[in-house]
Structure formats: structure tokens, C-alpha cells
Amino acid sequence: YIVSTSYRTAYHFQPPRNWINDISGLMYYKGIYHNFYQYNPHCALWCWGDITWGHSVSTDLVNWIQLEPVIEPDNPSDIDGCWTGSATILSGGQPVILYTGGRRDKRQVQNLVLPKNPSDPYLREWTKIGNNPVIQPVVPGLNRSQFRDPTTGWIGPDGLWRIAVGAELKGYTAALLYKSEDFLSWTIVDHPLYSQNYSSNMRKCNMWECLDFFAVLPGNNSGLDMSAAILRGTKHALKMSVDYFDKYLIGVYDLKRDAFLPDTIVDDCRLWLRIDYGHFYASKSFFDSKKGRRIIWGWSQEADCRSDDVAKGWAGIHTIPRTIWLDSNGKQLLQWPVDEIESLRTNEINHQGLELNKGDMFEINGVDTFQADVEIYFELTSINAAEPFNSSWLFDPEEHCCEAGASVHGGIGPFGLVILASNNMDEHTVVHFRVYKSQQKYMILMCSDLRRSSIRPSPYTPAYGGFFELDLAKERQISLRTLIDRSAVESFGGGGRVCITSRVYPAVLAGVGKAHMYAFNNGSATVRVPQLSAWTMRKAEVNVEKGWSAI
Ligand code: DQQ
């Protein structure tokens, strides 16, 4: 198979060569979007001590130019790697970066860098300050090798800056809270922003990595600046990357207690909602002051074998930036690809008023099936056939997606999209829904099933899944938007209630044949498709190798 070129994405963020991982600092500064990320300039693998801060810039979040790495390991406070951190724009407009440094003795410390020339909108050069590290792991009971990933700072009512740092402390996983007047000298607050005891039923919950803490308004997709005055009705989201997924809690930031209080306490972190139910980790959000929205994106690691990564010469992509906001019910976050990505759409095709009976497959022709954006609305003709919901499925939606795959007939569903399908269907990926009845409400299962996505033996091909609630008395339509970009598939179900990122490596993509795409239904109840639109997606200019001096 022609591994090296065919799996490279056409409009996702990735480096021309080498390894990338976490999103490490995002900001909009003097007309430019900045993406800083974990980057190994030497090869396509993650290696201790090699990790620097890669840097790319953009004016539209679609096309990117890669600049020189900005922070490299070169002193005892980061010699084992310049790991994840965050950017903050201080009150006078000055940008700063805090990042975790790995030391040889395995202690993790927090370091500060400042731009050499803040009037340069590209912020190409950064200087480590003399008194690094600015935060040491000195708290009694702290595990010194589990103390990392400082958040973006925010200002509290006392005018002091605050940040949170993920840590393992005396049997707790915690978001430790630090305060500072000047961003240079920090003191720990006597209680964490939030913490959780490791207990037996949470044995799967590890240290919280890549914390993110941000303000949201129910039902309002305008973003909020964390340092602005807190508006009435504001809620807060605490996001943590843990156990292979990015999870979050919704609650309030109690200013008197200086603590995050989740709306509901769920001890078992397997039940926490996820930013994305697929192959997505280490996301970060930022307030986009240009358009007044909050944007988030995450890292999607390769799911093929390491020897293929080495052969390709690159590994890791970032997902499409998404606007993120809180649903009007105040319970869950919604996400939608930023509008800018629609500038890549071409060759639009449309279908209206399709009817899909049990066993129907409707082929979607006329777009490049390897590089497409598909939006489809499924309308339920009746909800009586919904099968009963079993709440134990919430612990392991992946397992339920395996049991209830696209070929298993149901009452309502499975229905959805079959993509990247070879002529004889020996390779295909399915994104589908099922509707279940749970007492007074309906629960929708969304799966991204990769089990037949490749005939090649090496890729990791699970069935990802997530559930969302839908008031079917009010809303009879379930929408699906799927962005297909060669080895990346990002799906947004129910208007962004469940998002699933997947990585696929079909042989059909490596030049063996043409791929097909179908809308299908395999449930006993007929579903209508009032609207189906699809586009071919053009290639974006993403980090094209021109040399650092291109701008
Ligand atoms: N990756 C970074 C760490 C972070 C982890 C190192 C999460 O700072 O906790 O590359 O993917």
C-alpha cells in the first residue's frame, strides 16, 4: 500500500514532517491566530527530551504557516521536554506562556516565557525568564512527577491572576489553584479549584492532564473571556484529559470559595460527558476576541503502527477548530466546526425528501468520497418502535456500539452513513444512530464503527460511541455532519451534542479503488431524509514546507 502519501490529510492541521501531540497554547493576537503544540523536530515518534513547542500561525484557522519551534529543552528545568502549557494575554495586551518542564530527576516544574518582541504579530521568538521555574512541586503530599499542564490564566475578583495545574496529591487527582499579582511569583491557594478522591469504583481514572477551565452561557454561542466580569447566568466548564478521553464537568465557579462546584456530583468518571467520544485528546480552548466565540480543538494521534508513522515521516493531526458553547438546558456542551472551514466546500450536491425503509442504502454520488463534508437530517416517522434503554450501557458506550452494530436490526435505527466503502464492502466505516426509550425521555446512541474500516491488520479499529438525550416530542430530526479527510473522520451528531473523531486507514484509499458513500437505514421504522447536502472539500494550505523564513 502507498502508505506515505495517501493517508496524509488535505485540510486538517498537521506538520509537514515529524511528530505532534497536545495543543499547548492558543491565542488570537494582533490579527493572527497562533497554534502552539507539542512537537518533536527530530522524528515521527514521541521521545523524552525531544519535545519542543512547535508554532504555526493563521489568519483564518484553515490555512496555516509553520514557524520555528519557540521553546526548546536546554536547561535543567526542561531538559527532559518542554511539555504542555497555555498562553495568556495579560491586561496590558502582553502575551505570556506557562509550560511544564520535565527535569532529569523526573520532577515536573512550571516555567514562564515572554515574547522577545511583542510588536511582532507572529511572535516568532520567545525568551525563558531568568527565575524559572516559577512554580516548583513543593506542596507536601504532591507526587512530583504528576504535576503538569498549567491552564490559561484568569483574573479573580481580587484582581489577582489564577491558574490551575493538574496534580496527584495524597490520593486525590486535583486541579491545584495558584494565585499571582504579576504572573511571575505564584502562591498555592490552600484548597484546589476542584479535586476528586481516587476510589475503588474509579480505578480507571488517572491524573487529570491538560486541564481547561472556561465560562459559558446556557443557550448562547457567544464566547466569554474568563477574565471579564462574570455575567448573570454564567456557568463554568472544567475539562480534563484522562484515560484516553477529554471529559468535562459543568458547574459554577463560586467566587467566595474560589472553587468550582459541579452541578451534579458523579463519582464514577466513566460516566462523565466527553468533549469527543473518539480518538481525541489533550484539547484546549481559547476566547477568540476577533469573532467573540470560544474555540476548542484537540489532538488525534495516529492509530496505525509506529513503523508506518516512521515510514510516513509524520504522526498526529489536530482536529478542525470547533466553536463550543453550552446547550440551553445548561447540562452539556455543544460543538460545531468553525464557519471558516466551509470556505473549502465545492461541488455541492443536494437531495430532498428521501425515504429510507429497512435495509435501504442510498448511494451519495458526485463528491470526492475521500475529502467531503456531508450534512444529513434524519426524520423519525414514528417513535413507537424505540427499544428500551439500559443505563448500564453508559459505562461503556464502545462496547454497546460493538453489540449493536450497523448490521444488527433495531426498532428505530441503526441509520446513518456508510463511508469509505470499497466496491465489495469488505472495507467500510459506519457512522450511525439508534433511538432508545428511557422512561420519559429518549436516548440516542451515536457510533463511529471502525471495525471493518480497513483490511490492513495494523490499524486500531474500535467502535466508538456516545449517548445524548433528545426531546423527541419537540424535535423529530436527528442531524449528522461528517467531515471526511482521508485518514480523518469527524462526526457531529444531534447538532454537536455528540462528537466523534476517528482515524481510518483503508486500503481503498491507498490507490486500490474508488470509495463509496451511502445513507442507510437498518431499523424496522422508516426514516425520512428531508435534506442531504454534500460537498467535496478542497485542499487547504497547511504547514506547507517552505522553510522558516517564508514570512
Ligand atoms: N502530553 C504532554 C504532557 C501532557 C501529556 C507531554 C498529555 O504535558 O500531560 O507531551 O498528552
UniProtKB/TrEMBL annotation:
One of its GO terms (biological process) is carbohydrate metabolic process. GO terms for molecular function: hydrolase activity, hydrolyzing O-glycosyl compounds. The keyword Hydrolase applies. Pfam families: Glyco_hydro_32C, Glyco_hydro_32N. Residues 12-337 form the Glycosyl hydrolase family 32 N-terminal domain. Keywords: Disulfide bond, Glycoprotein, Glycosidase, Hydrolase, Signal. InterPro entries: ConA-like_dom_sf, Fructan_Metab_Enzymes, Glyco_hydro_32, Glyco_hydro_32_C, Glyco_hydro_32_N, Glyco_hydro_beta-prop_sf. It comes from the Eukaryota. Residues 340-535 form the Glycosyl hydrolase family 32 C-terminal domain. Belongs to the glycosyl hydrolase 32 family. This is Uncharacterized protein.
